[in-house]
User: Fold this.
Amino acid sequence: MRRAAVLAFFVIGLAGVSGGGWLVYSELARPATHAEVIAAGQAEVASRWERLAAGQIFPAIIHYAAPSGPVTTAYRVGIAPRSSCRAALDPPLAAALDRRGCTTVLRASYTDASRAFMLTAGIAVMPNATSAQRGPPPEPAPPGGRRRQRR
Assistant:
């Protein structure tokens, strides 16, 4: 009787382990759903900035429209270490981006060939695409001035 009970428990345990193994295999071997593929792609894009070298994010040479009109070339002269939104931006802009979930700001400085113009390019890292696509934050008023009217 005792031997039969031990044998029964062994068979039940073996069936449980086998069934659990089959469930794990079937979950790992199944193709990803469309929603899982989309979520994985979004997660990869959202974290790409952490894996890329700074030079891959900010190219050594960029082209831009100069204030006088013609397209000109600017050369990267430095890349700032990543910093928080509050530390990297003016308070009104930092507050507006903080409400949208800004986590990090990446910045690089460029100068034109004459070294007469300097510009800084920045990227505000948001937690997800929805936060990033909510639209631009309101334009802060210049110090002691009024906002320009948009037409």
